[in-house]
Please model this.
Amino acid sequence: MATNEDSLKNIISHAKEYGFVFPSSDIYDGLSATYDYGQLGAQLKNNIKEYWWKSMVQMHENIVGIDAAIFMHPTVWKASGHVDAFNDPLIDNKDSKKRYRADVLVEEHIAKYEAKIQKEVEKGQKRFGDAFDTEQFLKTNPNVLRNQEKIDEINTKLEAALNDSNLDALRQLIIDLEIACPISGSKNWTEVRQFNLMFSTELGSVAGDAAKIYLRPETAQGIFVNFLNVQKTGRMKIPFGIAQIGKAFRNEIVARQFIFRMREFEQMEMQFFVKPGEELQWYKYWQEARLKWHNALGFGENKYRLHDHLKLAHYANAASDIEFDFPMGFKELEGIHSRTDFDLKQHEEFSGKKLRYFDPEANENYIPYVVETSIGLDRMFLATLCASYQNEKLEDGSERVVLKIPMALAPVKVAILPLVKKDGLPEKAMEIFNQLRPFVQTNYDEKDSIGKRYRRNDAIGTPFAITVDHQTLEDNTITLRHRDSMEQERISIKEAIEKVIQKTDIRSLLSC
Ligand code: ATP
Model:
């Protein structure tokens, strides 16, 4: 059986082989933690964006979308707290010279105890079969309880060290837990230091510190500084949201795991402005709404779990992550944060401009509270690839690699394939190709045997293939092949076109 590590490796090489994702500046051997999206990757990425944008903006009468600049006034990042507090605690192993995030080292150690608990559960399930009661088992099994106690103890210490920004305590925890460097195997650690994650550059011809500006580390601030612009010009009434998709940049210390953690990435964020006191109710609403958005894709509810934050960010009064079951385990895919009035208040103070909302019903002015949903587009892309990638053994003993990408997200929706390259079949196929093109991304392919062409389209996740043969010339019927079941049906060209357009329409996801 393929290990999880193998499965990520297979996905990475598949993504490169078929033009989804390339290392950046590949001919120069790449640039670490930076990737380019190829011809199919760009298409898939656009489809994910479209799904998010439409479900946020088009499907909510009280949410609008903007597109703010990457560069912002430098004071924005002082006000937001990023200049002072957007740090990761890092630690170096003196022998391997490798650098780690100190908190991640501890979390990975905790994950080992979690894996032990999971093993006990699986053993129990095997032994007791249907009579097995997981909840009861977790509460009573002595091995589980021992491991859980250890997890709780470490978590308490980690939480305290992070909350107090106590770097010595964090280092001590690593020493006490006898955590070794995965590369050198040694426990020879440096001190823990804070490292700011923002990239900076200089603006125009101005010299000195005044010219220093940052590449935005999140898209959210572009929304906050435009809060009043949008509220006034859009005549928005609270509660309302502002959505945005755009690039963000972070000088990540540990940048591994393919497009999961990059230094340049894309976020899809929505800030929802609410009346103070109503934020926790909206926080719950958005947790549910976002899970629903994920579940509509049909990857399976067991692929997601909600994880409450141990350490609340400086701006939050509640925060959780939607985690996805990646090959490297459950990891954060999306954050949902109740950010209070922190950001708008800070911008009021630093800009000297009032950022208040006049509530006509209550006849009062207030600074709204904010609930944010923030998802990494690249992580969503990776989640989609991981959940879709399947290596199937077929009845005839052969194998196929297929990407079972949700039809509405698939980069190419349909392939038009003349059975042979003669007898007028290519011309007929071209007619169908031209009919479908204005509606959906369509590929025309006449090279290689029909079997090879089916496999190629399976490998890039094309949900449908239309094969044109000699009978097509006589009665205008074609063979419609379905990617997932590999079933083939003989139907009219008209029916096939309608089916392809209808089944791959993004509306099928929006109405879920
Ligand atoms: P992590 O704990 O994994 O570093 P975070 O909590 O710092 O993530 P947020 O600041 O909440 O992340 O950002 C919101 C979303 O942006 C994340 O849920 C993730 O999907 C995405 N994201 C954050 N950092 C990166 C990155 N370096 N590369 C790709 N996506 C990222």
Observations:
- The first strand starts at residue 21 and ends at 23.
- The chain has three domains: 1-73+211-393, 87-196, 394-510.
